[in-house]
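Lab notebook, bench 4. We co-purified these components, and the gel suggests they stay together. Before we commit to crystallization screens, I want a quick structural picture of the whole thing.
Request: model the full complex, all chains together.
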Amino acid sequence: MIRVGVFGATGYAGYELVQLLRGHPNVRLVFATSEQSAGGRLCDAYPCFDSLDLVRAEDAPLDEVDCVFCSLPHGASMGTVQRARRAGVRVIDLSADFRLATPDLYREWYRVSHEAPELLAGAVYGLPELHRDRIRAAGLVANPGCYPTSVILGCYPLARTGLLADGHVIADAKSGVSGAGRSPSLTTHFCEANENLSPYSVGHVHRHVPEMEQELARAAGRPVHVTFVPHLVPVNRGMLTTLYVCVPPEHDLAGLISLYREAYGAEPLVRVLPEGKVATMRWAEQTDRCVLSLHSAGRPGEFVIISAIDNLGKGAAGQAVQNMNLMFGLPETAGLRP
Amino acid sequence: MIRVGVFGATGYAGYELVQLLRGHPNVRLVFATSEQSAGGRLCDAYPCFDSLDLVRAEDAPLDEVDCVFCSLPHGASMGTVQRARRAGVRVIDLSADFRLATPDLYREWYRVSHEAPELLAGAVYGLPELHRDRIRAAGLVANPGCYPTSVILGCYPLARTGLLADGHVIADAKSGVSGAGRSPSLTTHFCEANENLSPYSVGHVHRHVPEMEQELARAAGRPVHVTFVPHLVPVNRGMLTTLYVCVPPEHDLAGLISLYREAYGAEPLVRVLPEGKVATMRWAEQTDRCVLSLHSAGRPGEFVIISAIDNLGKGAAGQAVQNMNLMFGLPETAGLRP
Amino acid sequence: MIRVGVFGATGYAGYELVQLLRGHPNVRLVFATSEQSAGGRLCDAYPCFDSLDLVRAEDAPLDEVDCVFCSLPHGASMGTVQRARRAGVRVIDLSADFRLATPDLYREWYRVSHEAPELLAGAVYGLPELHRDRIRAAGLVANPGCYPTSVILGCYPLARTGLLADGHVIADAKSGVSGAGRSPSLTTHFCEANENLSPYSVGHVHRHVPEMEQELARAAGRPVHVTFVPHLVPVNRGMLTTLYVCVPPEHDLAGLISLYREAYGAEPLVRVLPEGKVATMRWAEQTDRCVLSLHSAGRPGEFVIISAIDNLGKGAAGQAVQNMNLMFGLPETAGLRP
Amino acid sequence: MIRVGVFGATGYAGYELVQLLRGHPNVRLVFATSEQSAGGRLCDAYPCFDSLDLVRAEDAPLDEVDCVFCSLPHGASMGTVQRARRAGVRVIDLSADFRLATPDLYREWYRVSHEAPELLAGAVYGLPELHRDRIRAAGLVANPGCYPTSVILGCYPLARTGLLADGHVIADAKSGVSGAGRSPSLTTHFCEANENLSPYSVGHVHRHVPEMEQELARAAGRPVHVTFVPHLVPVNRGMLTTLYVCVPPEHDLAGLISLYREAYGAEPLVRVLPEGKVATMRWAEQTDRCVLSLHSAGRPGEFVIISAIDNLGKGAAGQAVQNMNLMFGLPETAGLRP
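Here is the predicted assembly.
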């Protein structure tokens, strides 16, 4: 049994993670932290019957675990990660703190200095479909953001084969409200989000943009620009991204679908729909998979790719568990909903 | 033109009130206050194009208005009401501060001492269907709560005719989330309220209970006990209350419907559906009316009455304007959605 | 491995059932029928990747299964049940066809003659908390309706101990839209159900009433009248029933909670919340349990009981699997979400 | 008073139209048709108190009206329009039947032959911001589709000034479910649309595409290609389109916003938000306006334009009334919610 701990167990992603770990056949959950609910149990914070004790992060027994998940806000995570790594514990960090390659890039987008820059070089971007082998050996995995997961998986087969003709991707993303976290705000107030649809961080300013561009550029071997507009949608969970891409005009839809089926054929958590079917949020709801569909945009070389995930599944907790499975040599979908 | 002011213009009820007053043919809106958004305009606080200036309550020019609406939290309202009354301004108070007959009852239910007990005797409970004449002459009208409006209107024809056989009403109420106000909280977080239905303040503990019992007892001339369970429902606005009552067994459904049609036949803002039709939230949505339907419960003398309002319409702002219309001799539905 | 078949696999309850059976460790799903989608696969009817073949009911290989589930409309189910029983197959029927004790009662409420009256005497009402031993031995189990499950479990500890003082229960029930089935209708049109809440079949006319009264009367040893008002709520799945009951006045809330904890202490799929906690739909969402909370109604002997289930879980498919587990000597919660 | 009639009064757009016309100060509603509900009244088809009689289309007294609105399905509308025009009545047609310039184009996209091709030349595309003068004089106005309204208004200032650098627009549109009509279907079933987001008619195949391209090409004086992906969103009403455009790189955001404010400065029903504000569905909900916001996409010449309307307001009934106001010399926003 892998002995694990969860930092930040009462946010939406943290709670989802605890659910998956509780049902995982190869895992024993040793501790879970919550600054707000420390001293209480999980069932004090959520309508459930799980009597898991919640402790303060500083009281977490790092010497009793093989692996920890950090589901803390960016900025707050890096200190904890550093402590865990120094204790020799392998870490899967769900925050943004170790996703970007350099401290400068981090400071540019997150407006704070990185406190553990020495760990950046060894951190692996935790998208198994791109970095499976490095994840297996990693001490620190930076679990991708939900938006980057949906965008990168939607374009990766094009990027790595040099088909992103103009190095440009337009990503129109729609996210369920749980992606905004559990802390109450006017934006997430029921009456403001319900019967509404709100774009935000429009164009090229959302903090997930550099992740997407970094990984797609790595795959493509050249810069990639992602125009990115996220939208808040009145659903609890789910994410659907509509991608607009240009490829060399000799590629037709059937060819592109073949390319994607080849790229992802062996992937347990990415599914490509047959021509004519359209990915919707429902295809990925309450699962840990990514579902893709491809469509012509009506002119040679122009295509629409639709990428659906559950923002708490493949977009957060599910992918974190997938990474853990890889790191500890377990079946990749153990404990998951493929 | 009646010159009016609104205290608390950026809560949901306050904003609805401003909308109604902006469209009212006989009203000029002189000022609107908001502690949070003072110095800004209404369009800074809401997605609208209304450039109405927002001022602090203490800067409101009471000498320039004939009437003010107080849409402030209970406890916070009474001081403002007192100030307005001393300035000779007529007041419609949407808070609970002047609804209960005595300071003791207020302290018992709201856990604070009343700061303006001298005004209680003159305050009129602002349910026009019960107190129309007194409202016309009132200096201070206590606008009813949304739950009491739906419950009282649903039972009043029985109460005043002595038909509430056992002096007991069971009221199972369902409210849209806007009834909980605009301040963010975990309860009103989209992901908590959505795909959920939550009873709260179950049994006989909600602060609206004494209002209901007071008014029904006044009408019946004897004590009335209201068993009351409010539920939060994932809709923005709307309120539906299912009432369970016993009347003497010689009354049948047709007779009861006649009784209600008689009681409310002249009322511009209460509608009784014909036998066989069922009131739903939709019947009252975006209106200022109350819609009632009556049904047999399967045994002689046992009936179900369904009462639908829009919690922001007849349940708050609409009723407040109806009261203003009465106080200033305007047509009762001027500016309203009957 | 128990070999099972599902009649009616593409309705919401049928699909949920297939999901549970697919994940059940002791079950092999041999066939699934759908008149509409026969010849296709499950993934043609739902956004999923399950390639389960769908056949016509008449082509179902009854000789290859130990047990079948019938998730067909009432009236349509009894013929199939009869055929299966004649083939010696044990049956769990999710329709209403075998829930009422006599053909006359069935005709009275469902307006059709019963086609298999000879099976009624041997059919067991499939509420394990009431009839566990008889279910174990049954050839035909009539799986309860969702509303009856929530109402009966909410009152059973009172009924069987003679505490339902006046033999009367008021049940105000709220159901998610999936309870209305997957066939499109104006009632279930998104725009009609969304931002709305609709009572229907008000009072004592819903077809689930006789089930409730029959089972509560059996437990109480005397007639029980259930005043019943179901409401359609804009959520996909979930059911919450607010029950109003009278017991002899010497019983207080703590005593009642003790009584319930005793009654259900050994039950794997019924949970009684501690005093002060309130059951909401969320407590039972995506589970196969029933969650109860008890509350004072403010006067001696008057109480409110809140009963939450997932209408597709404990209210349909989950309970059906629980029944199968009992019938075949498996652990009662095998394959379920307790 | 303008005497008007409505064909198809019980669909969502037709009902909205009736609401607007009932409140319009210069209109008398002479008749309303509904094939399904003929012989009944509006309050039989909707939860309202409007006793408007519904007649069959063939019984509509065309000789008693100055103007008719046709809110019928495409294909079904053209015959009625033809009849009305022959009777000398001015027509506003909300269907697609008279929006495309030629019968060939119509047949290509709608797969039926046009039955009234003689009327096409005189039909005016009813987008007042583009064709105000021609609408004033028109006998037949083809009211635009909801998607085209949001797309065209979002791009028109660029098209007409030659700034659509590559003649290409990407339009990612999100529509409330009322846009799909009131006829029940699996797509509009509550449980299918709720907690979901579904792209459909992806790329360049939706029937609204030729309208958009026709009008933008007319404005630009050159062909325009619109890549178009509509999405069904779980809200009752509202439409938000995210547009991705390229303009010559010397244009910056401030310049573009100025251009839009100039283009629409005199428009009563188009609003351009100041830099930094983002249009959401809420900005246009229950109104007849279009709200636009502009944003940089992070590289010179690349911009995102967000266009919000209420699909039943500016996207259908509101625009139809705006057209009527123009045709009859009334104030352009009479009876509307600007």
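Chain C is about 30% helix and 20% strand. Worth comparing against the SEC data before the next meeting. Chain C has a mean pLDDT of 98.
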